[in-house]
Amino acid sequence: MKIEPKIPIIYKNKFPKNFVNTPDGWAFSEKVIKANKGKILTLDIDFGNYCSLNCPHCFRRNNKVDFGKNKVMQYSDIVKVIKDAKKLGLRSVKFLGAGEPFEDKRFIEFLRFLHAEKIIPVIFTKGTVIGDDELAKKWNSHYGINNGKQLVNELKKLNATILLGFNSFDTKVQDEMVGGIKGYTLKRNKALELLVRAGFNKTNPTRLCLAMNPITKQNVKVLLEMYKWARTRNLAAIITPTMVAGRCAKEIEWSKITPSKKELVNLYSKIYKWNLEKGISTIEQLKHDGVSAYAGVMGCNEVACGMYVTLTGKVLRCPGDDKTLFGDIWSESLKNIWLKSENYKRAGTFNCGCPPKIGKSIPKSFFLEVMAQLDKIKTKK
Looking at the domain assignment, is residue 91 inside a domain? Predict the structure, then answer.
């Protein structure tokens, strides 16, 4: 059954000239990247490891960095990492795993710490806790938070950016994509409606994004429609093929769910064509910036201004793979790990493509082929 959340349209026609094409804190403009060359502007970090869902494509389940005996970061360890990173320029922290961040009783405490440090929290969540009053109370009653609305109001005060998992409007497909959890989609929809009512999509850049990734054979045909639906409501949208990590680390797994190169090129080309029509970008700007690994939004530049600190204290290039290890926080400082990393050598690069996925879930020559399609569109006009 297809159920669309009830969200009012904000941009019916053209987007404003000063429109910022990224969720707040998720990526950085070319101007910011060049002015802060060599700094850590963002960190992906793990916070807790419990998740009640069971997504078949999860990049944090069966992840290589978790194999064997490993010391796990405690709350104080994570605080130290943030304080060390702030000395190196930190502006935002992205929470991707290893569990669902809202299913941790110290998460709000940590967000309050980040707020005091003037660091933007960018939270990837499936929305189950926000969209279920009983769960919101279970995990947050000790903060005086007893329902989803109160949780959302707290997140707004703490300047959080929310990237809400959103793979399909279809309840059957979406419930399957979180592990066959019946009723999940309705909770996710309620979470989105609560966030919109609180005004998370009223800012520029928006503080509300739909994480439609990964692109799979299940949802590839509906993502263009979903992208348009989101953007006209000032919801950012991140759409990209699967990370080559965790449950999709092996070729047999990522290739099984990833659409063909032709389908991917077609999807990205149509998304960018719509962006051009709506004034989100110009063809000249797109040629300068390059096609993003995330269809239609600002290019990913984490691998030029950040790293990924896992639950076990190991530091990876980014969440895109679970093999490129830079070091661990137990044996050397974060600063030393950063200065010797390949990401530091890439500092100053605005659009980094996606090194972990190229030649895998993102085919070789993919970005060039998308741009070639856009050049054809321009020629026809």
Answer: yes
3-state secondary structure 328-377: ECCCCCHHHHHHCCHHHHCCCCCCCCCCCCECCCECCCHHHHHHHHHHHH
Within a domain: 381: no
- 0.85 cut: is pTM over it? yes
Residue 137 belongs to some domain of the structure: yes
Question: Could you list the residue range(s) of the whole structural domain that residue 57 is in?
Answer: 30-255+298-352
d(CA 241, CA 251): 13
pLDDT at 56: 67
**Contacts (Cβ under 8 Å, ≥6 apart) of 374:** 269, 272, 273, 276, 283, 286
Distance between CA atoms of residues 242 and 236, nearest Å:
19
Q: What is the mean pLDDT of residues 325-350?
A: 97
Cα–Cα dist 272/280, whole Å = 9
Number of domains in the chain: 1
Rounded CA-CA distance 47/110 in Å is 9
Tell me, what amino acid is at 143? Y
CA distances from residue 139 to 51, 55, 198 in whole angstroms, order as listed: 13, 21, 20
Rounded-to-integer distance, Cα 262 and Cα 257, Å: 15
**Other CB atoms within 10 Å distance of the CB of residue 215:** 24
> Please, which residues have CB within 8 angstroms of residue 170's CB and are 6 or more apart in sequence?
1, 2, 222
**Structure tokens given for 356:** 């972990």
Q: How far apart are CA 119 and CA 107, in angstroms?
A: 15
Type of residue at 296: G
Question: 281 φ, ψ to 5°?
Answer: -150, 165
**Segment 77-121, tens digit of pLDDT:** 999 999 999 999 999 999 987 789 999 999 999 999 999 999 999
The CA-atom distances, in angstroms, between 7 and each of 97, 186, 228, 235, 291 are 28, 14, 13, 10, 29
